[in-house]
Amino acid sequence: MTRDRKIGAALDFSRGSKLALRWVIDNLLDEGDTVYIIHVKRPEGEEAGSPLIPWEEFHQPEVMQTYEVNLDHEVVHILNTASWQKHVRVVAKIYWGDAREKLCGAVEDLKLDSLVMGSRGLGSIGRVVLGSVSNHVVTHATCPVTIVKQPPGV
Q1: pTM of the model
Q2: In degrees rounded to 5, what are phi and psi of residue 23?
């Protein structure tokens, strides 16, 4: 039985976002689901975003160069394995702008059933000074949001 859910995974290629991506694959995805890799870049004059890019195209060098994204081998391996073993569809979407607003917008644009993201673990002082993307998204997103925290010492 396929479920055909739309699951978002916020990915900035940090250790925390890779842990969140692994958590999505290990705990949430079922056959027939689509995982949307959502990457937000700081604004550089462009406010829209990329079209939806199928995984088979996204990790090609010329596409990564076009969107100035540096996928590392770990992420490529994680997503290739998930696509093949879990029989899920992987699609990427790049946004330009403030991560807080763009992640909440992605929930609406892509009609996500769920969003998973990592936490940088700033602590209360860091959140006051820098703000917390995860806190903003949990508060404002219109779908369930799971925050995957890094284990201590990682």
Answers
A1: 0.87
A2: -65, -40
Determine the distance from the C-alpha atom of residue 23 to the mean position of all C-alpha atoms in its chain, rounded to a whole number: 12
Interval 6-45: pLDDT, tens: 999 999 998 999 999 999 999 999 999 999 999 998 776 5
Q: Which residues, including other chains, have CB under 8 Å from residue 122's CB and lie 6 or more apart?
A: 130, 132
Residue appearing with tokens 């969107």: 67
* Cβ-proximal residues to 65 (8 Å cutoff; 6+ apart), any chain: none
Helices 15-27 + 73-86 axis angle, to 10: 10
- CA dist 53 and 48 (Å) reads 14
How far apart (Å, rounded) are the C-alpha atoms in residues 33 and 30? Answer: 6
Expressed in angstroms, the distance from the first to the final Cα of the chain is 37
Closest CA to 133 of 107, 102, 106, 154: 102
Six token digits for residue 17: 């976002």
